[in-house]
Amino acid sequence: MLDFIAIPMGAVLKFIYDNIAFQNYGVAIILFTVGIKTLLLPLTIKQVQATSKMGDIQPQMQEIQNKYKDDKEKQSAEIMKLYQENKVSPAGGCLPLLIQMPILFSLYYVISQPLKYMIGKSPEFITQLYELIPQGSEKIANMRDLNIITYFSNHPEQLQSVSDLLKPADLLNMNFLGINLGAIPAWDPSHYINGGSGVDTYLLLLIPLLSALTSYISVRYSMKGTSKTDETQKQPSMQNNMAMISPIMSGVISFTVPAGLGLYWIVGNVYQIAQQAFINLFILKKQKQKIADGAITPIHKNNQGKEAGVR
């Protein structure tokens, strides 16, 4: 359904792999992920600004809700008036996110299915190649492309029998800093999936560990930025739970998929941390300064010009 986005993105990733990333899949993932997220940065800024403005008027919204709790029509009218006076749209934080989601999902598909989106292999060819892989730990149905590349890279003697389907040039270089990005991490190196031995079996463990760590830092830093929006409210327990659940899930899932996907998540988390720092320093800080200088009025005022906020 998202091929109209994923196919052009795959062509861009292939160009990066061939011309910029020294024909290394790990370097290509890093450059490609950073590039896509940078292009989406203006939408992210709009989303954060809208969310921040909504946080600024939360005390006034609560006052209106309490004051007109028995008159829903008046309550709705006053809330809409509050939105208009502060130039806030209730959907302002959702629309940029909705625009980003198809692109981010496509990014995931492109990175997990390089034979389809980078090399241009048809699903039928990929299925034929996948069926040639012996049954075992190297066969993961939803990661066929990476399984095929890893298997035939580890068994080059098998390429001759599939020369009409797969060429040596189609086997992307999955070695990134000694880590096979087509392999799946395992706690016990003796059960290392997709082959490997020695120090690389332990290096592979860095992927889920860094995935969990960067996810935790990203969530906590994001919460830190939003919690300052309204210091009169307690931080919801749901956010605290998210700070723990998200890193745990990220780490666990990284033990079930090839390391290339884990690298993608790590890069995305690191970028998000840097992005949040940029937004906090140059966007939200500037916005709060305008409020302090009176250029923006974040509180609802009555007809006499007096503040109707909580005292």
The topology string of helices and strands comes to: HHHHHHHHHEEHHHH
Proportion of helical residues = 55-70%
Q: Report strand order across the widest sheet.
A: 1-2
Number of helices: 13
The beta-strand count equals: 2
Shape: elongated
Features:
two-stranded antiparallel sheet, mainly alpha, 311 residues, 13 helices
Task: Explain what you see.
This protein has one domain (3-293). It has 13 helices and two strands; from the N terminus they run H-H-H-H-H-H-H-H-H-E-E-H-H-H-H. By secondary structure, the chain is mostly helical. The protein has a two-stranded antiparallel ribbon with strand order 1-2. The relative contact order is 0.13. Helix 1 (3-19) crosses helix 2 and helix 3 (41-56) packs antiparallel against helix 6 (95-112). Helix content is 63%, strand content 1%.
Topology (SSEs and partners):
Layout lengths: L2 H17 L5 H15 L1 H16 L1 H10 L4 H14 L9 H18 L1 H6 L3 H9 L12 H11 L20 E2 L2 E2 L18 H5 L2 H22 L9 H17 L5 H35 L18
Antiparallel strand pairs: 1-2
Helix pairs in contact: 1-2, 1-6, 2-13, 3-6, 3-13, 4-5, 8-9, 11-12, 11-13
Short description:
This protein has 311 residues and is mainly alpha-helical. The chain has helices at residues 3-19, 25-39, 41-56, 58-67, 72-85, 95-112, 114-119, 123-131, 144-154, 199-203, 206-227, 237-253, 259-293; strands at residues 175-176, 179-180. It has one domain (3-293).
